[in-house]
Structures are given as structure tokens and as C-alpha cells.
Write a structure and sequence with these properties.
The complex is a heterodimer. Chain A is mostly helical. Among the domains of chain A are: 44 residues, no CATH class; 33 residues, no CATH class. In chain A, 19% of the residues lie in helices and 4% in strands. Chain A has a two-stranded parallel ribbon. Chain A is elongated, with a radius of gyration of 19 Å. The two termini of chain A are 35 Å apart. In chain A, 19% of the residues are buried. The N terminus of chain A is likely disordered. The two termini of chain B are 39 Å apart. The mean pLDDT of chain B is 92. In chain B, the strands form four sheets. Chain B has an eight-stranded mixed sheet, with helices on one face. In chain B, strands 5-1-6 form a three-stranded antiparallel sheet. Among the domains of chain B are: 83 residues, Outer Surface Protein A, domain 3 (Alpha-Beta Complex); 208 residues, TIM Barrel. The longest helix of chain B has 23 residues. Chain B is an alpha/beta fold. Chain B contains 15 helices and 16 strands. Classes of the chains: A mainly alpha, B alpha/beta. At the A-B interface, strand 2 and helix 1 of A face strand 4, helix 1, helix 3, helix 11 and helix 15 of B. Strand 2 of chain A pairs antiparallel with strand 4 of chain B, so a sheet runs across the interface.
Amino acid sequence: MSDNQNDPVSAGNPAANGESQPTEDQAPRRQPRIIACNQKARQLASMVLARRGSARALTQDPPPTQYPYGCTTVFAPGWEVDSSNGTHGLCQPIERDLYDCYHTCYWPAQVPDGVTNAPSWTSSCGAPMQDWKSIDLVFP
Amino acid sequence: MQLRTVLHRRFRDESGIEFIYLANSAAILALDEPTAAVVDAFISEDGVDSDAWVQTQPKPSAAESTLHDLIDLGAVRPVDETEAPRAELPPMPFPLATLVLNVTNKCNLSCTYCYEYGEDKLTGDEAGKALMDEKTARESIDFLMRSSGDRPQVSITFFGGETLLNFDAIKAATVYAEEQAAKSAKRVHYSLTTNATLLTDDIVDFLTQHRFGITVSIDGDKDEQDRHRSYKSGKGSFDVMEPRIRNLIGMNKERNGRPIGARVTVTAGATPVVDTYRYLVDDLGFDEVGFAPVTAGLGRDYALGEQGYESLLREFGELGEEYIAAANRGESHGFSNLGDLVRELHQGVNKAHPCGAGLGLVGVSTEGEIGLCHRFVESKSHSIGTVQEGMDETARAAFLEQAHIDKKTDCTQCFARPLCAGGCYHEAHVRYGEATKANLHYCDWIRGFVDLGLKSYGRIQSSNPSFLARFDQQ
């Protein structure tokens, strides 16, 4: 598949697209070559990106313009900042990650699977901000 | 691999940003210059050998990467690839969303261009009852309720003739629909088209109370209105309707009612669109104005000829400038032709059928006979059932199958196909005697109008894209 370091397609203001034409050696920093303007184009672009399955970090410069809000259901390491390149939109306080990843948006890379393998993983921990230390490790 | 750029339309905004509208998906993409050049390089009937092309590029890997993006987005495809089939018919019977009740086929006016009475009428001498009785109106509501599946909202549109000649049926249908809607937990939206000559305070009171969407058929100022919209005696209708329209719009505004639209029929030699718009909005106070070229068979002197369509398009362009200026300020503008088109372009509407007639919408005659839409209801040859006995699903499906865009081979090479899909069935019937035929006589007009929409869309997208978010479909 083609160059995955860039989003080939992005939704946004095309007026921001034509200011300077990037050269090939500037590739990692260039503006999107194609901007999906209408809703149908955005659907197509999302399908293409999903099919390519590229892992994208939000810290890349320029950042992709299509941000996930909240968490993500695909394994895509790199959501370490929020849509404004800060951390305020992430789980706050950070201990809440334990529950947000375990219950509302299960993420197998970080926490035990609460659906089938470790349904009682947090049963000893009623208030994660106070007693998160009481949660034990889980060995698969 | 032999590749070629798919059927498309290119356009650019004032600053030179290149856009492409893809006819296969109705997607709109903005392209940077190198990408636009790739699109151009593959415009070829027989296709271009992509491997060979890549090797000739100064930066082969960048060119290949761009080409792959365009392939994935469906802009450049293998030359021998058949286009993905469009959606066939949805599962039938498709639930109805809108019922158009022709509460009367009579009119107190005698407009020279009227398709209901003029030379292009569909009805023979066997035309049905003049007025829909209250029983048929109620049966129609029952039919709508049981034919609308689990839709939470349905619409009832009253049409004519002049609808207000049968206000009794409108009232009965509305009151009955409220009762039935409450039983089936549906919301009902009402709308009505009228020539405004019979509006009284009581009628306006009723319509605004039930939040009717009201469309007034009006051609413009006194001169323009009286040119074609006259009584049988030949006397113009302007002086009768004007004070009634002012009263309607005033009362509607007081009650914070739905926007009131004017529907202008454009004939040969009509006042320029911008002037008519200004009069209807600034002077009379309409919220929206829609312009429709007159439906006419060959040889009618009021029909728009080639030049008439050309000047109409130019005038649409002038009024379009106002629309764009308003959009850049983040404000709505009442030029509904362009507003509707920009909305469809933004959503990427890709039609299998030109309109909802026979699909989500049907018309009902004064006697309860069901037609494809309000324009077909009095035509026995286009009947698809009755509200009493139900829809003839076989006839309905057969028509829709025949009217599907994939059957219209005339449209296969037209970039405007996703929006036009062959155009109005009734127009086609009047012109060619065949409702499922593509309206080839106004292809240039449609393409010109879609071009105007695309350019307007590109300009708004570049200068104030947040305006377009209002058209996002959930």
C-alpha cells in the first residue's frame, strides 16, 4: 500500500492545502494531497484508512484532522494525546483509565479482558483513585 | 495495469484550488496540483498503462503513492472494471413517508401554462370527482398510517387544483390524522400548496396552528404574475392574492411558523430571477423562493427555448452569488434551488431514482386512486391502486424497476447522473409519452445547474466550510 506515513486524505479546509507544495524529501510533514470535502468522500476516506489499517500517532506533524473522540476500538497505539495535542481530553484522572479501559472501552493491550477471562478483576477496588493498589495482576 | 479516470467533473474555486466530483460515488475531493495532474494523466477512453506511466515520472514513488490513493478512493480504476452496481430496489413494499392528497382537481384560476388544464394535461374527459370527500380523505390517512411501517414521522401534502377550494377536506384530514397519529405514536407534518387567492383569516389561523409548511404559487410582481396566472375571464390574480399573502406571512411570523416558500414557474420572457427573488423576499416577505422552468410539450409559446434556459442559468448564477455571500457570513439564504443542490452535494446523494415518487411518496386522487405522485393522480393509465384496497405492489415495483437509473442508458456518460437520475417522470411523460425515459431535452440545463452548484460548493468549502456542517446527515 502507498505511503503510510501521511494521511493521503483528510477532511478539512482545502484552502489550507494549496499554500506550499511539499517536495518528496519533506514527505513526512506535508499537507494532505487529497481532502475529502463532502460527507460521501469522508465515508470513502474512512473506509480506505480502515482498510489500510495504518497506525497513526496523533503527535505527527501536521496531526491528522480526523480524531477519534473518547477511546478507540481498534488496536492503534499512539492515542497518547487528545485532539488538541494535549492530555486534557484523555481519561482524567489518569487512574480512571483502569475502569474506562476495562468497562466502557475494553482494550486488551492494557487491561485484563473483563468479558470472559477476568470478570472480577476490579471487584476488590470500589474507588480506583483511592484503592487502585488493591487490584492484583492477572496472568493469562 | 490499464487504468483510467472515472466519470467525473472537475471544478475550481476562485483561488485556483482544484476539486473533483466523482459520478460513481458522488464524493467531492479537493486535490493538490500534483494529484490533479495524475487525475488528468489518466483521462483516457482506452486507459493508460500505470506501470509505464510511473516509470516516466520524475519522482516515481511519490507518483505511485498518489495513484494508489486515487485508486482506493475510486477516482482512477481499471479500464475493464464494470462499475459497481447501484442499490437495486429496497425491500418492497417500501414504507411510505409522504402522501400527496389532491383534494380537488378544480381551480379558480386558469393559468395558461397549467399542466392540469392546459394542452399537456394527462387526464381525459373521464377525470374524477371535482372535490375529494371527507370520507376519502380519512381513508387516505388510514392508508398512510398502515403503509408507513415503523416510520416515526409521516408527511401529508395537500395539493390541487387549488387546494383551498376544498378546505373542508383539508380540515377533516388534518383533524383525523392528529387522532390516528396519536394512536400509532407517529408525528405528522402537514404542507400545502395554494395560489393564495382564497386565504381567509380563519384558514390562516388553522394552517399556522397546525404548523403547515406553506408554498404559494406566485410568479413575481404584478406584471409577471398577471402574465400567465389569471382568472378564466382573463383578469389577473395579483390584486386578489397580494394582500392575502401579506396577511399570511405576517400571521405566520407572529406565530413563529414554518418558513413560507414561493414557487415560481419560469416561462419564456420572464422577469430576471434576481428581481423576482428580491420582490418576493424583500417586499412580500417570503422566506424561500424556488424557481421551476415550466413543464411544456413541444411547441408551446410559453416554453423556455434553448436561449431561455441559458439566460435562466445565468440569472441563477447571479442569485447564487448572493447565496455564497450569505454562506460566507454563516447565514441562510432563501434561494431554495441552490440551497437544495448544495445540501445534496454535501451529503453525496447518489440517486437510483430521480425522486421519491412511487417509492416513499405517492399521490391520491379525489376518488382515492393512487398515482406515482400528485402530477399523475388523475391519469388512469398510471394508477397503482386505491387507498381503499391498497397499493398494487406489482405495478409499483415494475415501474420502479423500469425507472431505475441503471435502465437509463442515456445517462451512463453523464457526470450529473447521481443528482438528476433522468429527471422528472411527469416531464418525461409530457415530452416523450413515457414516464421512465430520461429527460434528454434538459440535459444541458441540468449539467449547467449542477456545475453552478459544484462551483458554489467549492467556494463555500474553501472560505467557510463550517456553513456546510448544517447539511450533515446523521
